[in-house]
């Protein structure tokens, strides 16, 4: 085994003897190579220098082409834009319930028809009328009889013809009977019985079995018809119609946290339907005390006049609410605002040496063609509002 290989070379090579180099010498050589730039490292390993944007200086002729604006505090009224849906004015709308039971014999109105207070809406063949008329007749006869007895006892007691106790009892019985008569009469009135029929009953004249009429309790438009002929109604339970006064409606709009502080009850509002130029004026009437757990919004009610009944329930609209309370801020024209490569807003501010420096800003509320600057500018700063793009072009050269 004398022909062993040394580092992959033939054994003959081993006859040449190489001097041994101490480990410390290798370390020294490596350090020298590092300082002399013989390292295999590339230029990409070196840190890139930071890029600074220098100010721009214009000539006198170029200065004439730009326009400056002096930043100063301004007062403005915030406008909040949101969406909403039209609803009935619940103060002027009602659901008409069946005042008595029985099958519907005839419908007298159709949806969309305008009605006045007391107008008949439907006719019902109700047995409640027969029971109410019978109860009133009995109560009327009982009250008349007991009143005559009470009057006779009152006359007899003056001649000692009846005891005091009996006379007092007769007066009590007559009063109770008259109370029952009045209650029976109110039952007939609640059933909307014809006044002439009531007079005939009081006079003892025979009356035919009347049919029940469901009458409108308010003036307005029949917006819902919920019953059909032959349907059996339950007194005080079955909804029959919805009547609403559509001359005024509610618009239920949604506000979120950032807009709540800008809206107050009484603020004027404008409602846009998106149909031609049909816009409507309204007023904020109520701000809900609850937050919708699904949308995290707060419902705001806007009362809107509705000429021609143009606005319909569940119609989607846009709502623009203008705050009556003034706000103060640093308003600058939109034309002064540019954006850098990272889409951050900035303006060019005039410097004491006549140059123009780029300054980043924080945009706040937009009022028309102006922005309220939340941060980055101070009152008295002069910014470029016309010609800023030209300065940006020069700065990028």
Structural write-up:
Helices cover 24% and strands 35% of the residues. It has helices at 23-35, 60-63, 128-157, 164-190, 195-203, 257-260, 388-396; strands spanning 67-70, 73-88, 93-97, 102-107, 114-115, 120-124, 212-215, 220-225, 232-233, 239-244, 248-255, 268-272, 279-291, 298-305, 316-333, 338-339, 345-350, 356-360, 362-367, 370-375, 382-386. β12 and β13 (279-291) form a beta hairpin. α3 (128-157) packs antiparallel against α4 (164-190). The protein is elongated and about 125 Å long.
Short overview:
The chain is of the alpha+beta class and 397 residues long.
Labels describing this entry:
single chain, 397 residues, alpha+beta, six-stranded antiparallel β-barrel, 7 helices, disordered N terminus
Number of helices: 7
Largest sheet: 6 strands, antiparallel, barrel
Radius of gyration: 47 Å
The topology string of helices and strands comes to HHEEEEEEHHHEEEEEHEEEEEEEEEEH
How do the helices and strands line up, and which of them pair or pack?
Layout: H1 23-35, H2 60-63, E1 67-70, E2 73-88, E3 93-97, E4 102-107, E5 114-115, E6 120-124, H3 128-157, H4 164-190, H5 195-203, E7 212-215, E8 220-225, E9 232-233, E10 239-244, E11 248-255, H6 257-260, E12 268-272, E13 279-291, E14 298-305, E15 316-333, E16 338-339, E17 345-350, E18 356-360, E19 362-367, E20 370-375, E21 382-386, H7 388-396
Antiparallel strand pairs: 1-21, 2-11, 2-15, 3-10, 4-6, 4-9, 5-8, 6-7, 8-10, 11-14, 12-13, 12-15, 13-14, 15-20, 16-17, 17-18, 19-20
């Amino acid at each position: 085994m004398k022909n062993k290989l040394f580092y992959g070379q033939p054994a003959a090579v081993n006859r040449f003897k190489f001097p041994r180099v101490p480990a410390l010498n290798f370390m020294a050589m490596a350090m020298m190579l590092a300082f002399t730039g013989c390292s295999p490292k590339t230029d990409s390993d070196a840190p890139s220098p930071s890029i600074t944007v220098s100010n721009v200086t214009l000539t006198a002729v170029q200065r004439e082409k730009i326009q400056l604006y002096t930043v100063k505090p301004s007062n403005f009224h915030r406008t909040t834009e949101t969406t909403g849906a039209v609803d009935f004015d619940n103060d002027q709308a009602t659901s008409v319930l069946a005042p008595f039971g029985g099958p519907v014999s005839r419908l007298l109105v159709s949806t969309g028809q305008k009605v006045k207070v007391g107008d008949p809406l439907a006719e019902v063949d109700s047995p409640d009328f027969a029971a109410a008329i019978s109860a009133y007749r009995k109560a009327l006869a009982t009250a008349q009889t007991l009143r005559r007895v009470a009057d006779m006892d009152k006359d007899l007691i003056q001649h000692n013809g009846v005891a005091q106790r009996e006379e007092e009892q007769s007066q009590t019985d007559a009063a109770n009977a008259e109370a029952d008569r009045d209650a029976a009469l109110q039952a007939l009135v609640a059933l909307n019985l014809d006044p002439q029929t009531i007079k005939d009953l009081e006079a003892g004249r025979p009356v035919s079995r009347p049919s029940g009429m469901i009458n409108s309790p308010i003036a307005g438009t029949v917006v819902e018809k919920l019953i059909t002929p032959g349907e059996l109604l339950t007194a005080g339970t079955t909804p029959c119609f919805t009547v609403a006064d559509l001359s005024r409606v509610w618009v239920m709009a949604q506000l979120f946290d950032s807009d709540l502080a800008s809206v107050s009850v009484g603020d004027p509002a404008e409602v846009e339907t998106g149909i031609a130029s049909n816009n409507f004026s309204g007023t904020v009437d109520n701000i809900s005390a609850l937050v919708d757990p699904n949308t995290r919004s707060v419902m705001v009610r806007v009362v809107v006049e509705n000429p021609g009944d143009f606005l319909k329930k569940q119609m989607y609209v846009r709502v623009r609410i203008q705050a009556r309370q003034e706000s103060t801020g640093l308003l600058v024209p939109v034309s002064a605002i540019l954006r850098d490569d990272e889409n951050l807003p900035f303006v060019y501010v005039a410097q004491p040496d006549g140059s123009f420096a780029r300054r980043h800003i924080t945009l706040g509320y937009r009022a028309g063609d102006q922005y309220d600057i939340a941060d980055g500018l101070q009152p008295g700063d002069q910014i470029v509002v016309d010609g800023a793009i030209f300065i940006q072009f020069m700065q990028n050269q």
